[in-house]
Design goal:
single chain, alpha+beta, Alpha-Beta Plaits, Chitinase A, domain 3, Trigger factor, domain 2, 3 domains, five-stranded antiparallel β-sheet, 11 strands, extended
Length: 440
Amino acid sequence: MKYELLEPTPVKRTVKVTAPAEEVNAALAATVALRRRTTEIKGFRKGKVPSSMVESMFKKQIYDEATNDLINYHINDVMNELKLTPLSRIDVDAGDLVKDQPFEYSFSFEVAPKFELPPYQGHSVEQERAQASDAETQIVLDRIRENLAEIVSLEQERPATATDIVVVDFQALQNGKPMSDVKAENFQIALGQGQSLPEFESMIQGLKPGDTTESEISFPGDFLNETLAGKTVTMRVTLKEIKQKKLPELDAEFAKKAGQFESVDKLREAIAKSYVETRAQVNKSAAQKKLLDALTAQVDFTLPESVVDEHIDRMIMELKGRLERIGKHLDALGKTSEELRAQHRPEAEALVKAQLFLLAVAAKENMRVSPMEMDDFFREMAKKTRQDFQGLKHFHEQNNLMNAVKDRILADKAMEHLYRAAEIVAVDPVKPEDQKDGST
């Protein structure tokens, strides 16, 4: 096998490979021999079927397998010899093997760009002090009260308002006929929380228990339920019951329910402590980003396009998921696929540039990732996603994702190194009123 390495761009590598006919024939013979071991044909013992018959019966499968096996062997051989680590997937441009003929093909991939690192230690960066004000503590306390609130039926008879929790029966009608798949009984909904269309909630507001009303409702074209998307139907609603949240009293019993605290004061102290710890990590991350932004602004290099595209794909998938959780499609944004990708490209490019900068720092500092650190990563990931540790690790191994995990750990190590080597200047938090005024 002979090969030629081409560098069409600073980050793209293309390898042109030529395998002689002898190597092609050897690859085909080896694949036929493997297939022959398991082939059973009446009149022949297992493993004794003539090679010519096996090749005739399974020609396409044999040539496909032999082609893939030979290409994979070549790629591993070339990569080890060149000592190159692809940043992206390897794209192969090849046909099929032909017996007694040389085999020519190429494969391409992207690598990390080469650039000179600027001085990256001893930089100064501001970081907000982590504090918990009484108002911030109260917000968390109020949230806990909301979570522990009891939903009770309203005793007095009055019309439903925009802050009530209601129980309704509803039925959609089209051309005067009930739609069997758009109806519900004893359906509970919290009004004013964006859980349903505003027009639907408006129908309910002002009704008293036992009241029934009808009104036309037009559903948006991007409505997640395709049965209703873009249609106008008559909605019949009967209000069955009005409920409200009954907030618990701020007393010892509430403190105990909230986390086995002996008093509300102890609960406040725990909230403030937790808030400060969380805020400290948030402020550290913000300071790290400022530090990294200042450093990456000092360098310029070609970005691997496929890696940028992978980040854009991930961002759009996350956006799609967020929209679907509120019952919308990507089409609701009114943008083409090209416009969406262009919108996310600057952020994706900044992320890729930052990662490549950190990997360069990690290489210069001779940082390594141990098997134990890899396992710790998967254990933490399994814990967060509630998946099996071994299953996650096996998935990444089988899909060639282990290098991506290793790079992520290396980047985190490099960022921590930059942060520890920086001069951290503590500053007071920016007050909300200052943010509104645009001052600091």
